[in-house]
Design goal:
Blueprint lengths: L1 H4 L8 H17 L11 H13 L3 H16 L3 H22 L9 H5 L5 H15 L9 H18 L4 H18 L31 H17 L2 H8 L2
Helix pairs in contact: 2-5, 2-9, 2-10, 3-4, 5-9, 8-9
The chain binds zinc ion.
């Protein structure tokens, strides 16, 4: 377990990654094109999924038919479909911004899914050590990000037609995780496996150690910038006496 305590091998803070991911999503949402507007059309979505599931589990399709019917006749749908779509979008960005650290045994995503402790956690960790590589390698390659983004971007809208904005959200979250790690002094081998060198986004002088006060300061600056881009900053200042 010694590598977990090793400062060089630590995962950047969970809350930093989530904040960076969500700020990125908020900035995209601020200037998003119409096709990126998320929707959550329950009836249409179910009509599309139904034939896929029907053959395997007819009792389940019956159950969902009932639930969808209740939903669409409840009168709630027009009120909450847009907020739910945005909540889902935020959740997808959050998921994407945590996923690369699945290669780190004590990362939050592994603790969330119980893959950090016990025999299962040990097996998952061995798997990553042997087949994927140590922390901040394969899951942090630019090529991995591109491959996953293309795969999700291609398959998700095929399975579910409103999927495109969520696929983009996943790609943004994942990409921003790598970009944020590239602000830390350890850097990221983004051009791996072709080039082993670790790169940083800024000159070494401006990078910071994981979990340092400068990490907080950078994330805070991004957060304030996001508020400013949304006009919230002006609103707060105008509201102050
Ligand atoms: Zn990372």
């Amino acid at each position: 377990m010694h590598f977990v305590r090793d400062r060089y091998n630590r995962a950047m803070l969970f809350r930093s990654h989530v904040t960076v991911g969500l700020c990125g999503a908020a900035l995209v949402a601020r200037f998003q094109p119409a096709w990126l507007t998320p929707s959550w059309p329950v009836e249409a979505g179910w009509a599309q999924l139904r034939p896929l599931i029907e053959s395997g589990a007819p009792w389940f399709t019956g159950l969902v038919d009932g639930a969808v019917h209740l939903w669409s006749t409840s009168g709630l749908a027009p009120l909450v479909e847009t907020p739910i779509a945005y909540l889902l979008l935020v959740a997808v960005v959050g998921f994407g911004s945590l996923l690369p650290d699945i290669d780190h045994q004590s990362s939050r995503i592994n603790r969330m899914f119980g893959t950090s402790r016990g025999l299962f956690g040990w097996l998952v960790h061995r798997f990553f050590r042997i087949f994927v590589g140590p922390h901040r390698t394969v899951t942090h390659y630019g090529a991995t990000w591109l491959g996953l983004s293309l795969a999700v971007g291609y398959f998700l809208p095929q399975l579910w037609s409103p999927g495109a904005p969520y696929a983009v959200a996943f790609s943004i979250g994942y990409g921003l995780h790598i970009a944020a790690d590239m602000l830390t002094e350890r850097g990221v081998p983004v051009f791996g496996p072709f080039i082993k060198r670790r790169y940083t986004l800024v000159p070494d002088l401006l990078t910071f150690p994981t979990g340092s006060w400068r990490e907080y300061a950078t994330v805070l600056a991004l957060f304030l910038f996001t508020l400013w881009a949304w006009g919230v900053w002006g609103w707060i200042v105008g509201w102050l006496p």
